[in-house]
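Hi everyone,

Forwarding the result from last night's run.
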Amino acid sequence: MDVPEPSQSPMVTIGRILKPFGVRGEVRIESLSDVPGRFEGLQSVTLVLPDGGTMETMVTSVRQINQGVILGVSAFSTPETAALYRGAWIKIPVNHNLPRDNDTFYQFELIGLRVEDLEGQHLGTLEEVLEYPQHHVLVIRNEDREILVPASRRTIAMVDIPHKVLRLTSREWWDATYAL
């Protein structure tokens, strides 16, 4: 079976392999995508192994079971082989034409942005987005500290994806030292 050439475009993580499923080398995955039907229609995926290695493989089957996804790929034909990839991240090339509302962004677009305060002072890099029932929290890290900022229109003044910058509003909305 032909394996596609490794993709050179930016990648987005859509899932993680949890464990083998069945006797044909299929795997149960944890979906990290909020796009309905994300796995249906996939032709190939890139697996990023826990040790950092990558492998591109063809998707052979996708099915939904009990709020989960079972994925078959050409790289696995036995449960023993599939078990070697437990914990691998499933990535696909970024599709820049995703549907969106105005002033909304996908998490993968925000990760890695330079974060500045309202005056343009560098605060760090947005490294993670934590999801909580009430709201999302931006995790901004620099060499000295970690800053947690609720993701809301009150705390984010501007997002400039082409220039890779996220500017926060006045510190009174996101800096706890201003509340003391």
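The two ends are 63 Å apart (CA to CA).

Cheers,
N.
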